Backbone:
């Protein structure tokens, strides 16, 4: 790396605070959200009438999901231990109370579902009966009495209570996370009524039920390549598209308090755009003058006058915004704390498309440093997203902006298998086609390396989780193309991964990668550990000891093999974290190591 590269500069970027996951209290007085100002996510509130924000939880672990009681001041929230994803359910009885544990089975996964309309009960799923299977439960919050409504095999989640409070809307992912079913589950009898029956595959991102009992809306790709918003009748039939925008995915929706208006988010090349329409899809329009970035949820204020949403972008750290419907204006409600960092120097990416081995055009986000290229060209770091069924989006990445400030170009491809480009595209890497995504990465790397402003001899690759698998595959399939690799908690051996991953999610992973009993030979070929001696580039590995999705043994085995071969490999083990790094102290440790590794090798 050039002498001007300063690894210590990354600390200021990692110190930037975030505010996200907003929720509005039923009386419209309070905005609750997650902030990591204390070092990791805790619940904070602020009043819509003014005043300073206030932290209302001080738990020993980060807060996960949360939801206001629809009829009171209480907040239900989830919390795991060290990122192990075995979330417990907690209740904050009111905004000045101490949290109370509703579940205390530390080895059990509890998936938050929904409050009942009258605010007296909660519906959720857990794997307490069997580690592999999620059962559906209803708890009376006052008495803590739990009724098990349904036991069964595989993954299922509670989406909502029906308006009469007598049934639950349940989503099942028995085949895979992209081949789902939803149904009405009667709480008293356990009887199931199928909803939105479909012949092909379908994925249901979210659902909202009408209070009058006439049906509801869902975000799904039933009978479509893209995600649409559709309306269904009270008996789960008669699906009619309400928001259907060609070649663009709908990703979130909200119903106005009078349930006559729909707000939604549409994905436009990774950037989010807010839209509004009538409940039947009439008067549809996309909002202009919206701040650019990524939006993951929307909520109407109880008076229906405003929309509240989280927003972050490549140049915008995570914050919470409001759209006023009467004035058509946007304003921040809770701003991110940038700790003195000059965000004006941050860089937005552009999307470019690259021809792959089969002629298919594959998109990638290209971030060009603000400084001119050195005589030999920019060094480049490719960053491959995880998932694999995810999409690189222009959200805020402290590591990316640090790299750009140091004169490193960043390229973030959405190789085949990514979401955001339709079902057909994200199924292109399934099972036997696993290595086609690695071929996409190779082709984009070659095209970037041929640019006049790039130093072809200084191109590295970095990825997390499935992106870590892509790093290991890139370095073993094409060892002469890469200057270095950085693997954060990646998969090195699919056979051992499918044995050790959290049993509640194994079926979803086997559906994506292949079942060992059927595809053992192919999984062995796809596993980078079986070609590890081909690796030439230095490698940094980072993994946490409580990761339930990709257990640490994956990295231990890769490191052991490379150490035995005398390969240049550095391994950082992180304690009390899971599939990612939730605590700022740990992020500082991890990314300081990352920056020093790049300074030495890139």
Residues:
């Amino acid at each position: 790396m050039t002498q001007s590269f300063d690894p210590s500069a990354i600390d200021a970027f990692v110190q930037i605070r975030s505010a996200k996951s907003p929720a509005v209290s039923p009386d419209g007085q309070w905005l609750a959200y997650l902030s990591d100002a204390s070092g990791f996510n805790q619940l904070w509130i602020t009043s819509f009438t003014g005043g300073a924000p206030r932290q209302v939880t001080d738990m020993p672990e980060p807060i996960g999901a949360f939801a206001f009681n629809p009829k009171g001041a209480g907040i239900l929230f989830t919390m795991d231990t060290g990122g192990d994803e075995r979330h417990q359910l907690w209740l904050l009885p009111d905004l000045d109370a101490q949290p109370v544990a509703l579940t205390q089975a530390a080895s059990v996964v509890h998936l938050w579902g929904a409050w009942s309309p009258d605010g007296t009960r909660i519906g959720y799923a857990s794997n307490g009966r069997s580690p592999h299977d999620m059962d559906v439960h209803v708890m009376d919050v006052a008495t803590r009495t739990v009724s098990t409504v349904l036991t069964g095999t595989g993954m299922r989640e509670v989406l909502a209570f029906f308006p009469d409070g007598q049934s639950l809307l349940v989503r099942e992912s028995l085949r895979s996370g992209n081949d789902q079913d939803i149904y009405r589950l009667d709480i008293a009898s356990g009887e199931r009524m199928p909803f939105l029956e479909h012949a092909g595959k379908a994925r249901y991102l979210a659902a909202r039920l009408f209070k009058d009992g006439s049906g509801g809306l869902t975000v799904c790709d039933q009978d479509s390549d893209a995600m649409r918003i559709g309306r269904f009748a009270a008996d789960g039939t008669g699906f009619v598209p309400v928001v259907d925008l060609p070649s663009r995915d709908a990703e979130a929706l909200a119903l106005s308090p009078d349930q006559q208006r729909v707000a939604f988010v549409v994905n436009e090349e990774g950037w989010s755009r807010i839209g509004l329409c009538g409940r039947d899809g009439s008067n549809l329009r996309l909002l202009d003058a919206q701040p650019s970035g990524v939006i993951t949820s929307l909520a109407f204020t109880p008076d229906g006058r405003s929309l509240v949403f989280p927003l972050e972008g490549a140049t915008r750290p995570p914050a919470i915004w409001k759209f006023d419907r009467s004035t058509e204006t946007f304003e921040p409600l809770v701003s991110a704390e940038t700790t003195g960092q000059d965000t004006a120097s941050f860089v937005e990416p552009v999307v470019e498309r690259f021809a792959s081995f089969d002629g298919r055009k594959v998109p990638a986000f290209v971030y060009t440093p603000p400084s001119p290229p050195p005589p030999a060209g920019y060094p480049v770091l490719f960053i491959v997203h995880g998932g694999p069924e995810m999409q690189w989006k222009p959200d805020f990445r402290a590591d990316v902006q640090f790299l750009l400030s140091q004169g490193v170009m960043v390229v973030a491809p959405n190789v085949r298998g990514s979401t955001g480009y339709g079902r057909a595209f994200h199924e292109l890497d399934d099972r036997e086609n696993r290595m086609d995504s690695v071929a996409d990465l190779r082709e984009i790397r070659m095209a970037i390396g041929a640019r006049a402003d790039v130093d072809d001899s200084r191109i590295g690759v970095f990825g997390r989780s499935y992106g870590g698998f892509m790093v290991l595959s890139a370095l073993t399939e094409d060892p002469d193309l890469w200057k270095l690799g950085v693997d954060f908690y990646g998969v090195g051996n699919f056979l051992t991964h499918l044995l050790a991953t959290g049993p509640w999610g194994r079926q979803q992973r086997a559906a994506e990668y292949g079942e060992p009993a059927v595809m053992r030979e192919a999984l062995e070929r796809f596993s980078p550990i079986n070609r590890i001696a081909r690796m030439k580039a230095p490698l940094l590995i980072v993994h946490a000891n409580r990761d339930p999705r990709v257990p640490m043994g994956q990295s231990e085995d890769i490191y052991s093999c490379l150490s035995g071969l005398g390969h240049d490999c550095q391994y950082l083990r992180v304690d009390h974290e899971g599939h990612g790094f939730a605590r700022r102290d740990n992020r500082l440790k991890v990314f300081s190591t990352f920056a020093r590794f790049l300074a030495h090798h890139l």
In short: The mean pLDDT is 94.
